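S.,

Sequence below, as promised.
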Amino acid sequence: MKRRLVLTVFFACMATFAAILASFASAQSAPAAEKQKIEVLIKQVGDLKDAKFVRNGWTYEPATAVRFLRGKWEANDAEVKTARDFIDKVASTSGKPYLIRFKDGREIKSQEFLLAELKKIEPKL
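The prediction came back faster than expected:
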């Protein structure tokens, strides 16, 4: 009888632990479909061959911007559940709005650029 109680408590604890782990894992990162959108958005930044990424007054090549965005995304993974979260919480500002400066000198806020790109890709994914 005592053994049965111990086993019951043990399995109840294991089930609770598994549920906690599952909820923790889901709270830690974006769903796969949203991650795919974020990956496409990052690729779009990397593919901007004749543009620069402007962050806090400093200008960077697209490849550097990609590394920065990935690192900031990783550091803020728990807060990023959707591609929109990525745009708003990772890829838009750090004191000053991030900008994309095109070869012709025209600048656009990275948030505006990425939201426009998200609208293009969402129907396809």
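Residues 54 and 99 are 5 Å apart (CA to CA).

Coffee later?
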